[in-house]
Amino acid sequence: MDRREFLQSFALAAVAALAGEAALSPAEAAAPPAARFAFSRSALLDEARKLAAEPYQESTLDLPARFADLSYEQYREIRWKRDLTIWKDEGRGFRLEPLHTGSVYRQPVMLYLVEDGTASRLAFNRDMFDYGPNVKPPEDPKQDLAFSGFRLRRPLAEPDRWNEFATFQGATYFKALSKGLNYGLTARGLAINTADPDGEEFPVFTRFYIERPETGASSVIVHALLDSKSTTGVYRFTLRPGDETTIDVELTLFPRVEIGHVGLGALNSMFLYDATNRTRFDDQRPAVHLSDGLAITTGSGERIWRPLANPRNLQISAFVDQSPRGFALAQRRRSFAEFQDLETRYDLKPSAWIEPVGDWGQGSVVLVEIPSESEIHENIVAYWRPKAKLPAGQEFSAAYRLHWAPGAPTNPELGVCTDTREGQGTNGTSRRFVVDFQGNMPAAGAVRLEISASAGKILNPILRPNPVWGGFRVTFDLDTRNVPLSELRLLLTDGTKPVSETWLYRWTP
C-alpha cells in the first residue's frame, strides 16, 4: 500500500462513518460463534436467514486512541510476524496474514480457519504482531483490538517471492492484482443507495471463513457473512491468482426491508484528469487515474467504450440492458510516458471486468462520476443495478466472475478506442474532440463514420487514417451554445455492420 492508497482508504472510511454504519453489532459482539464448530455454507446461510429476521443493531468499536489516531507511517509499522504466517511451509501454494485494527481501519472482523469441515476461530493476540519503533503495543496481550481483515499471498513471478495478491479490509471492500501489476481500483461485495440524496448505506463483512487449500492448490476459498440495516448475506469467493487473477463471487442476500437501489459487481476507482481535462490541473504528470474508461458488452453483443470524466457536478449515467455479458472499469493506457509517476505507477494498475454468471435479467450498468480535486478520492463507481426491487423477506442470489488483468476483454474483429482528447474548437462556443481507433478494421475507403449528439450541433466531422500508429482518427467540433449537457456517440462501420466498438461520451461544461 502506498500513501495514495492509504489516504484513499481514509476517505472511504470517513464516508462510511458519516453514513452511521456499525463496526460490529452488539448481538455478535456479545455472543460470537463458538471457537470451534462444524462449518458448512448451508449452515452459514441458515444463520444469515435467521439474523435477517432480527432487528439490525449497530454500535461502534471502542478502539484505544493511540490506535485510532495512528498516522499512515505508524500504521504501516504494524506487521504480522512472518514466522507465524498461516500455512507457511505447508506447501499449499498460499499464505494468509491477518491485519490489525487501527488508524482508518476501525471495523473489527472475526476470522475463522476452516479445515476438514471444522471452523476454528483465530483469536487476536498482540504477540502475533510486530509494532515497530513508533507504535506502543497494547498493555494487555489479549486486549481485544481485533483484526480488521486479511491479505493473501502466492508466488506470481518468482517461486521464492510470496506476492500479496488480494486484500479484504473495511466494509465490503476487497482488491486484487495479477502478475506484474500493482494494487489499483477496489471492488465491493454490495452497494446500496449509491449517490442517493438520502445517503448511501455501507454493508459490512463481519466474519470471514477461510478454507485451508489443498497441498499444491491453485485456488483458495473465502466465505463471508454480511450485515447491514437493509440486509444480511452470505458470500463465497474463489480466488485464482496468476497472469490474470480471477475471483468467482457467489452471493445470497436476505433483505430485511425492500431494497429499491442495489448494486452488484460494484467497482470503485479514481479518475482525476487526462487529455480531456488536462488544463484544469497544474501538475507535471500528463495523466492521473486508476481507470480511464467504462467498457460494456451488452446482452446483444454491442461493445461500448465510455471514457471517464471528472465533472464539475455529480454525474450519473445508466446504460439500460437485458442480460449483460460484462462490464469493466479499465485502464487502457499502459505506457509510463503517459503518466510519468515513479511512485504510484499508474501504468501498472489493473482493470477489473465483471462477467455475470447466469442471466441477470433487466437492469442497467450505472456509472457515477463525482467531482474531485485530489487523487486520494475514489470518485468513480460502476455497478449493475437490477430493474426489479429486492422484496423484504425474499432471498436473492447472483453470481459473477471478476477478472483482474491489464485490460478488459475486446473483440478482435472490432477496432478499439485507444485515445480521447478534448480542447478548444474553432470558435469560442465549440469544443474539439479527437478520438483514435486501432485494431482489425477494413481499408480506409471501406469505413464509414456514424456520429450524433443529443444536444448541440456536430461540426466538421472528419474520419481519416492514422499513418503514425495505424487505425483511424475521428475529429469533430461540438457547438455547445446554450447546451448544459450533451450525450455524444460515434461508431465506425463498413456501411452495414460495426467495425469498431461504440464510443460514448457525456460532455458537460
Automatic annotation (TrEMBL):
Its main location: periplasm. It is found in: Periplasm. It holds the Pfam family MdoG. One of its GO terms (cellular component) is outer membrane-bounded periplasmic space. InterPro entries: Gal_mutarotase_sf_dom (IPR011013), GH-type_carb-bd (IPR014718), Glucan_biosyn_MdoG/MdoD (IPR014438), Glucan_biosyn_MdoG_C (IPR007444), Ig-like_fold (IPR013783), Ig_E-set (IPR014756), TAT_signal (IPR006311). Pathway: Glycan metabolism; osmoregulated periplasmic glucan (OPG) biosynthesis. GO terms for molecular function: carbohydrate binding; catalytic activity. One of its GO terms (biological process) is beta-glucan biosynthetic process. Residues 39-507 form the Glucan biosynthesis periplasmic MdoG C-terminal domain. Keywords: Periplasm, Signal. PROSITE patterns: TAT. Belongs to the OpgD/OpgG family. PANTHER family: GLUCANS BIOSYNTHESIS PROTEIN, GLUCANS BIOSYNTHESIS PROTEIN G. This is Glucan biosynthesis protein. It comes from Methyloraptor flagellatus. The lineage of its organism: Bacteria, Pseudomonadati, Pseudomonadota, Alphaproteobacteria, Hyphomicrobiales.
